[in-house]
Amino acid sequence: MNKQEKQVYEFLENTFNDKSAPDKTPCFEVFSKDVIVSSPYVGKNLGSNFLQNLLQEWCYVMPNVKMSDITAKAFGPVILTTWNMKGKHENLYRIDNDSEASHNILFKNPNSLGKTVTYPGEMAVFYEQGQIVRYSCKYDILELYKQLGFFLHKEEYFGQSLISKDRVLLISKLQELCLNPITPREVEVLSLNLMGFSAKQIALFLSISFRTVETHIHKALHAVGAYNKLQCLEKMIETQLLPLWQDLGKILFSIHKSRKEKT
Q1: Which of 103, 101, 29 is nearest to 59 (CA)?
Q2: How many helices and strands in the chain, by DSSP H and E?
């Protein structure tokens, strides 16, 4: 192993497998303070402190977690790793700063306590000037849902029971299904528009300008291959994708409603 491969390998070993040192702060010294973090359970976030809190909480909900079969391979400044993870859900997730994230749904459910999960995953990190500036983790979160006891019931689309409450996964899924490139914000705007909300209402929900909403709607319609809202609705009904868009719209409306109640 070269120096960076060894650093990444030891980071995974020390973070997940070394139970003798509860304080994992030294493990994260290799990361830039403003490292970009991307994963199935948080989408995109920023900062080594965020990453440290997140992974330490992961170890808290599964205190016996074990990472095995770790590989690390360098491709220039990028280090790619593969691994297998196994752990038993013993404690409820405590962080509540992102209520729509997958890990909150998974590990805050008392019904999943006592269940053991086993899953493979991949991680990629990008080095710049001796520090990791990008961290990206990938694994099948739907499989994780299933192992923790979230089952499918009367689905309007495949995996609905698993992802209908997950904002990040819904946006990602809808982006994949569009004919042309579409941004997450354009997906959000179109989902609310397809639920019947006006541009002014959407602007209020998402805290953006009315003109910006109109621009997003125009671009989103192009992305799905429609000239107007009516044609878009017809396409969604014909392809049976309307429930997918509506589930995202419900999440966004719920978030707005929750924020309004707190103020």
Answers
A1: 103
A2: 11, 6
Q: Which long-range contacts (CB under 8 A, 24 or more apart) does 103-107 make?
A: 103/41, 103/42, 103/57, 103/58, 105/165, 105/166, 106/41, 106/144, 106/145, 106/148, 106/150, 107/61
Alpha-helical segments (H) within 152-197: 160-163, 167-177, 184-194
Question: Burial level of 144, CB count in 10 A (0-12/13-18/19+)?
Answer: buried
Proportion of the chain above pLDDT 90, given as a percent = 45
Q: Which residues contact 148 (CB under 8 A, 6 or more apart)?
A: 89, 106, 109, 112, 115, 117
Kindly state the tokens that stand for 89: 């859900």
* CA–CA distance, 126 with 124 (Å, rounded to integer): 7
Length of the chain measured in residues: 263
3-148: which CATH topology?
Nuclear Transport Factor 2; Chain: A, (3.10.450)
DSSP state letters, 118-141: EEEEEEEEEEETTEEEEEEEE--H
Given the structure tokens 């982006």, which residue do they identify?
Answer: 175
Using DSSP's 3-state secondary structure scheme, residue 20 falls into coil
Domain ranges of the chain: 3-148, 160-261
The average pLDDT across 174-196 equals 91
In CATH, what is the architecture of 160-261? Orthogonal Bundle (1.10)
> What's the rounded Cα separation, in Å, for the pair 162 and 106?
10
Angle ∠(18,23,27) on CA atoms, nearest 5: 65
* Distance separating alpha carbons of residues 252 and 188, to the nearest angstrom: 8
DSSP-derived letter for residue 26 is: G
For residue 65, the SS3 value is coil
The reported pTM is 0.57
More confident residue, 32 or 159: 32
